[in-house]
Design a protein that fits this description.
Number of domains: 1
Oligomer: single chain
Radius of gyration: 18 Å
Distance between the termini: 41 Å
Number of helices: 8
Strand content: 15-25%
Helix content: 25-40%
CATH architecture: 3-Layer(aba) Sandwich
Structural class: alpha/beta
CATH class: Alpha Beta
Strand order of the largest sheet: 1-8-7-2
Shape: globular
Bound molecules: zinc ion
Mean pLDDT: 85
Low-confidence stretches: none
Length: 230
């Protein structure tokens, strides 16, 4: 036990049991999100874009994997994860995401590269500002042993997507990103865009659109920890 642990023993954020920030029985209470199509939100195996939504040219993603259902317990966890730097909770979330990849039969085994949503939702941890999406992508890339690439930069300041209606969201994102200079992707690669949260998936779709414009043969997928509903 470290000195800090001695002064502030770890307590489950849900039931206050000592020993860990999230105890075993509370971890079990976190359920996976139902498998849905990222566009129409109807049931779709392995979180793949359904056949009908594939026909829409404005949909650029193969699917978005979501390991966690949005529950009150998860909300508490999100708040703690963002405002306190709790490594073991972060590791647990990453591990669940990795399990979701492994269980997903449509997820490719090879030629996967990982990226993140550029300069987006910075959070203050101690003295540095981090891009939450980049931090998560970095951890996944280490854990899966696949390369991480910054594919795009953010061109303009955008408002928080959650604060806008559907039209506002689309307008807000229009031409928000530009491709990273000297980016070289291979046609047979799958690009996996990681973000911590999605509401409608439109941010991930917008980045996918830019990638597909320059690399039409590349497959683009998304993965988020949870989907905000409502
Ligand atoms: Zn607990
Ligand atoms: Zn659909």
């Amino acid at each position: 036990m470290g000195f800090i642990d001695y002064l502030f023993p770890r307590q489950c954020i849900n039931c206050s049991a000592t020993g860990a920030y999230l105890c075993k029985s509370c971890k079990k209470k976190l359920e996976p999100h139902p498998e849905i199509c990222p566009y129409c939100h109807r049931t779709s195996k392995d979180y793949r874009t359904c056949i009908e939504c594939r026909c829409n040219k404005k949909n650029y993603l193969e699917g978005i994997i979501i390991p966690f259902a949005y529950t009150d317990l998860l909300k508490t966890l999100i708040i703690r994860l963002k405002y306190f730097h709790k490594k073991d909770i972060g590791d647990f979330l990453v591990e669940r995401l990795v399990i979701a990849f492994q269980a997903n039969q449509s997820f490719p085994q090879n030629n996967v590269i990982i990226t993140f949503i550029p300069s987006h939702r910075y959070r203050h941890y101690f003295v540095k500002w981090y891009n939450q999406s980049e931090l998560l992508a970095e951890k996944i890339s280490e854990r899966l042993q696949v390369p991480m690439v910054a594919v795009a930069e953010k061109k303009k300041r955008t408002k928080t997507q959650a604060s806008l209606d559907r039209n506002g969201r689309l307008h807000n994102l229009k031409n928000a990103f530009s491709l990273t200079k000297n980016l070289r992707l291979q046609w047979n690669e799958t690009l996996l865009i990681i973000d911590d949260i999605t509401t409608t998936g439109s941010t991930i779709n917008e980045l996918a659109k830019l990638i597909k414009y320059h690399y039409p043969k590349i497959k683009v997928r998304g993965a988020v920890l949870w989907r905000h509903v409502g």
